[in-house]
Amino acid sequence: MPEGVPATTLLPTQNMAIADTPLLECRGVSKAFGAVQALFHVDFEVRRGEVMALVGDNGAGKSTLIKSVAGIYPFDEGEVRYAGEAVHIHGPRDAAKLGIEVVYQDLALADNLDVVANMFLGRERTHNGFVLDESSMEWASRETLDSLHVMTLRSVRQIVAGLSGGQRQAVAVAKSIMWDSKLVILDEPTAALGVAQTRQVLDLVRRLAERGLGVVIISHNLHDVFESADRITVLRLGQRVALLETSETSQQEVVHAITAGTLDQVPGMFDDGAPGP
Amino acid sequence: MTTEPDVDRNADVEPTPARETSPTTLSGYLRLWWQGVKYGELGSLPIIAGLAVIVVIFGVLDDTFLTERNFTNLLLQMTYIAAIAIGVVFVLLIGEIDLSVAFVSGVGGVVMTLLLRPDDPGWPWWLAIAVALLCTTAIGFIQALVITKAGVPSFVVTLAGLLIWSGVVLILTTQASGVGTIRIQDDTVVGIANDFLSDTAGWAVGAVVVAAFAVSQLYTARTRRTGGLLAKPSVVIVLQIVGLAVVTFAAVWYANEDRGVPKVAVILGVLLVFWSFVASRTRFGRHVYAVGGSAEAARRAGIPVDRVRIAVFMISGFMAGVGGVMLASRLRSVATNTGGGNLLLLVIAAAVIGGTSLFGGVGRVISALLGALVIASIQNGMDLLGLASGTKFVITGLVLLGAVLVDAYAKRRRVARGVV
To answer: Domain count of chain B?
Structure first.
């Protein structure tokens, strides 16, 4: 990865452009696993208050892109800018520090613990470093859940194992926004849900954006994408083949991009040093 | 890829049937509790039912079972099992197993006894005990290191530990004494499991227990209410306090009818309160449950999973050492077979019978006490009836099997109810 531009040279332009600087901006990022080019010179951006959908067929590079943003593994090349500044994300902790939270498909909840315990897992509030401050955690959990209008949850002291799929998803999302996060990435949030629960989760996604957060939603379900997203990034074979405004496109167009979008480079047909787009 | 994959994997799993939302009344609280029971959160219910059955059966079969004398004996027989079982509960909570605890407790007892031998080296009792506990804690640490760093299942590592530490017990005892039995000649150490509190002291301890429980319950309820959160209804709190008072004072009175409350029971009580607090009220305890519930979720939440595992095995080693000291004190000696026999079986059975799930993440420290009470009662009752060893093993095994079946059944209910 290139060295970050010194902050001093950035400042003048940054101040002017702060309003429409994308929250997250990946420029020409690539990632290869051995011989497999998972991502090739991909541009990707998310603005504040926007739901950006990331779609593509299996193996298109969706997971690789978000995992790299989340710090699971670094990009091979390209530049990542966060709130206008060049950043290097070396691990999940770096991502969390920047305010990037990922809700993975398996949600990563401890089923044996209640909602409060899960929302504060690993970041428990204590009285003196040891003893749990249950009251304060319960309050904060309730406030966050209430602010998301997760009405179906009866008690924050319920054990997570007893929750429905949609409720679990809601808890996982609420957990991700408790930490002053600015960018929430949702990996297939509706894949395992029924109709009514999907509805709830999509509403939740919209509400996150209304709060001014940047939201990335990965989905196989175009119906869900059109319900919730402002813009759609289409990946195909590790390249971005389309960036569409949801209001100006159709499912047909997106499907076409997913299956037959024009590639700048045919994978395997270029030298390593081939110029990017 | 289609536009409408419509994966409705659990569309039909509707939210849990509306659970009672206002546990602010006694009836509401009871209803909520009963709902929990139906969904597999059995808590201490099976064990209390089991204890009642045991008391009735042995009470009918043998006249001496319910005597004051036998009651204090039972307390003495139970304490070391409960102490070791506390450590096992922690290990089970993170979804692991420690098969070495019995012989590790043996090592603790033997090390202490050797250090106490007059003039050889004739250490003071507190130093001998401290070093013994340090040894057993270190054993837990080493075993945990192998488990976490080498990624070997705890079952295998502690099975190796079982063999190794049984060998160490044998080596130490036979080297120190030709006959393989070493007597403890320190009065303080022998007194741990053989001395009793005076009647007055017994009552005082009982009063402290009840008062401490009442204060903590009322304090919790008050801070929750002032914080605007739902708290247990006052009726329930009062009933719980009264219930505990009745049980405690009845026990003190019955023990006082005989020799009094055993000192070692008080030590066990302190340990139970301490470890219960650690498990349920501290950040570390929360992490223990999280690791047992979902190690992956814990890891992603930034919990140092391996460090939690190591700490838990150290607790297991430490409590095994405590139990070993208690047992050595009770027998006034250690021998080549210290920590052997059916001790391991009894200890793990106690933890499981007490309601700690073998699947990890579910259970309470107090289950060590309840399970030990059941196990010791059965052993004690069968001894009184003069049953043959074989029969005793068979019956103990059946009780353990029953407890595991209850656990598996409860787990199935929990799974059927939610998405585990």
So the answer is: 2
